[in-house]
From TrEMBL:
<keyword id="KW-0326">Glycosidase</keyword>
<dbReference type="GO" id="GO:0008422">
    <property type="term" value="F:beta-glucosidase activity"/>
</dbReference>
<keyword id="KW-0378">Hydrolase</keyword>
<dbReference type="InterPro" id="IPR033132">
    <property type="entry name" value="GH_1_N_CS"/>
</dbReference>
<dbReference type="InterPro" id="IPR017853">
    <property type="entry name" value="GH"/>
</dbReference>
<protein>
    <submittedName>
        <fullName>Phospho-beta-glucosidase</fullName>
    </submittedName>
</protein>
<dbReference type="GO" id="GO:0005829">
    <property type="term" value="C:cytosol"/>
</dbReference>
<dbReference type="GO" id="GO:0016052">
    <property type="term" value="P:carbohydrate catabolic process"/>
</dbReference>
<dbReference type="InterPro" id="IPR018120">
    <property type="entry name" value="Glyco_hydro_1_AS"/>
</dbReference>
<feature type="active site" description="Nucleophile">
    <location>
        <position position="374"/>
    </location>
</feature>
<comment type="similarity">
    <text>Belongs to the glycosyl hydrolase 1 family.</text>
</comment>
<dbReference type="InterPro" id="IPR001360">
    <property type="entry name" value="Glyco_hydro_1"/>
</dbReference>
<dbReference type="Pfam" id="PF00232">
    <property type="entry name" value="Glyco_hydro_1"/>
</dbReference>
Length: 477
């Protein structure tokens, strides 16, 4: 079956403030957690919260400081998105651009004006902004003063941010996501939630307490949004991809269910409005007693999301046997090598059918509209003298994933709102801090060490994706 998508389907692309904006202290912006995460050998220890780095030094290179300078080039970039035919552009707000310290009395007007200008530019071209409120972004001051999301004070600061942005942009933005890849705080706690650990602390207990605070904040944001504009659509966001069992041994199958639940837990709460029993039992087994307020249960129950958004890059493979190893390189989610799949240059296993499986798993579980807000192939691109890249490998990856998406919609009946491939313009990699790990339809002239003109040029995939959007997903060859 090769039917396309509904005429309302939101084709577009996705970015994040911390990976594209740059201008990291311009116009009164405060220091953000991502601004102190360097490229190089210290990146993972800092991202994991194991190495405390809350200031910048002269010994490291910090890719977010300039990124791809979207802050000064947004008009040019959005014009290119329009040329491709985007109906939707997913972007995030830099919290410290709006509240430089996080706990400021009044917001920074220059930061608010910047996003006004970005949204106006999108709307000029009929592009619907899809805004992530927090995408791996915490003002460093809040890490220093309250310990970031380990503290319930963060919920108040987040509420204040939401009230400001929902009121300010209520006639410009319809679609909102509360937290990017909320489950990532279990895997990269400083990147996901600004958590830094001291020697001897119970890290797991801190992570789940921070998760609770984010879940409450997400529910409160949903409540505030509906009060300010009942037409808002509020979604949550999961780093998705099913865990396959390594063999048909029941122990391996059970292990795959447990691994999936580690991630589903967050969306179970945001979509269903309560902690699932398996999560309550898991926390009890681990001896983790969450600090919970009396009103928390009601807040979660009465403020569930309208839709489920997720990122999908690859599936994962797991075994109950602790001696089986051979984990793939480069991915923050540990996984065994799947002998039936090819892998990217960074060890991410390429599994288009896995996207259809993920879509069905999520839709069966929640019966709410889904939105694929990240998908794509990180690869080394070699441009010619004009900056043109013949990225057939990227086209092939996206084509096969769009076919799987089409099957999920037309054959399986999954309700899908849109598709915004990740890094529609080349940007800094969140995991490695590299520029050479490129996802975009648009090439940006910059290398891993920050050298380059920042000139934008169209790749072969730019023209291919334009054709896909024009045909509403029918012409993907």
């Amino acid at each position: 079956m090769s039917k396309g998508f509904s005429k309302e389907f939101l084709w577009g692309g996705a970015t994040a403030a911390n990976q594209c904006e740059g201008a990291y202290l311009e116009d009164n912006k405060g220091l953000s957690t991502v601004d102190v995460i360097p490229k190089g050998k210290d990146r993972f220890p800092v991202g994991l919260g194991k190495m405390k780095m809350l200031e910048c030094d002269s010994e490291h290179y910090y890719p977010s400081h300039e990124a791809i300078d979207f802050y000064h080039r947004y008009k040019e970039d959005i014009a290119l998105f329009h040329e491709m035919g985007f109906k939707c552009f997913r972007l995030s707000l830099a919290w410290s651009r709006i509240f430089p310290n996080g706990d400021d009395e009044i917001p920074n007007e220059e930061g608010l004006k910047f996003y006004d200008a970005v949204f106006d530019e999108c709307l000029k071209y009929g592009i619907e902004p899809l805004v992530t409120i927090t995408h791996f972004d915490v003002p460093v001051n809040l890490v220093k003063t309250v310990g970031s999301w380990r503290s319930s004070k963060m919920v108040e600061y987040y509420e204040k941010l939401c009230k400001v942005i929902f009121s300010r942009y209520k006639n410009k933005v319809k679609y909102w996501l509360t937290f990017n890849e909320i489950n990532m705080l279990l895997h990269l706690p400083f990147i996901g939630a600004g958590l830094v650990f001291e020697e001897g602390e119970n890290e797991e207990a801190i992570k789940y307490q921070a998760a609770h605070h984010q879940l409450i904040a997400s529910a409160k944001a949903t409540k505030i949004a509906r009060e300010i504009n009942p037409n808002f659509k509020i979604g949550c966001m999961l780093a998705a991809g099913n865990n396959y069992a390594n063999t048909c041994a029941p122990e391996d199958v059970w292990r795959s269910i447990e691994k999936d639940r580690e991630n589903y837990f967050f969306i179970d709460v945001q979509s269903r409005g309560e902690y699932p029993n398996y999560a309550k039992k898991m926390l009890k087994r681990k001896g983790i007693e969450l600090q919970v307020e009396d009103e928390d249960a009601g807040i979660l129950k009465n403020n569930t999301v309208d839709f489920i958004s997720f990122s999908y890059y690859s599936s994962r493979l797991t075994s109950a046997n602790p001696n089986i190893n051979g984990n793939t390189e480069g991915n923050v989610f540990a996984t065994l090598k799947n002998p039936y799949l090819k892998a990217s240059e960074w060890g991410w296993q390429i599994d288009p059918l896995g996207l259809r499986i993920t879509l069905n798993s999520l839709y069966d579980r929640y019966q709410k509209p889904l939105f694929i807000v990240e998908n794509g192939l990180g690869a080394v691109d070699t441009p010619d003298e004009n900056g043109y890249v013949e990225d057939d490998y990227r086209i092939e990856y996206l084509r096969e994933h769009i076919k799987a998406m089409r099957d999920a919609v037309n054959v399986d009946g999954v309700e899908l709102m849109g598709y915004t491939p990740w890094g529609c313009i080349d940007l800094v990699s969140a995991s490695t801090g590299e520029m050479k790990k490129r996802y975009g339809f648009i090439y940006v002239d910059k290398d891993n060490d920050g050298n380059g003109t920042l000139k934008r040029s169209k790749k072969k995939s730019f023209y291919w994706y334009k054709k896909v959007i024009e045909s509403n997903g029918m012409d993907i060859e």
